[in-house]
Write a structure and sequence with these properties.
It contains seven helices and no strands. It has 116 residues and is mainly α.
Length: 116
């Protein structure tokens, strides 16, 4: 959500810094707690994501917003990549939306098997 709002403000670096610090970091901390947030960022398998996220914040502070956003998006994907199976399982349980997500997979399976 904040990345969409950031693009509306044409990568205004002051707004990017505000959104990232308040909404992203504080939001994760409120959702999972202080200790779990610290463990998420200092976990050995998440070093690459943590470094790119914090480097993206640094680039926002030095007013290079496009590079900073790209690094932060990459960092978020790496940091929260382990949650995607849980998120996809949840989304597939939603009545109409789940069918829309699963339909391309079912269609590909039918093409692989051939028309029976």
């Amino acid at each position: 959500m904040t990345k969409y709002v950031d693009s509306l403000y044409f990568f205004n670096s002051n707004f990017l810094i505000l959104c990232n610090q308040i909404f992203c970091l504080a939001g994760v901390t409120i959702l999972i707690g202080w200790y779990s947030t610290l463990q998420l960022f200092i976990n050995r398998k998440n070093y690459k994501g943590s470094a790119s996220f914090l480097l993206g914040l640094f680039f926002l502070f030095v007013r290079w917003p496009i590079v900073g956003i790209i690094l932060e998006i990459y960092g978020c994907i790496v940091l929260f990549g382990g949650f995607w199976p849980s998120v996809s399982a949840f989304l597939c349980q939603i009545p109409v939306f789940g069918w829309v997500i699963q339909y391309p997979v079912m269609l590909l399976n039918r093409f692989r098997r051939g028309s029976d």
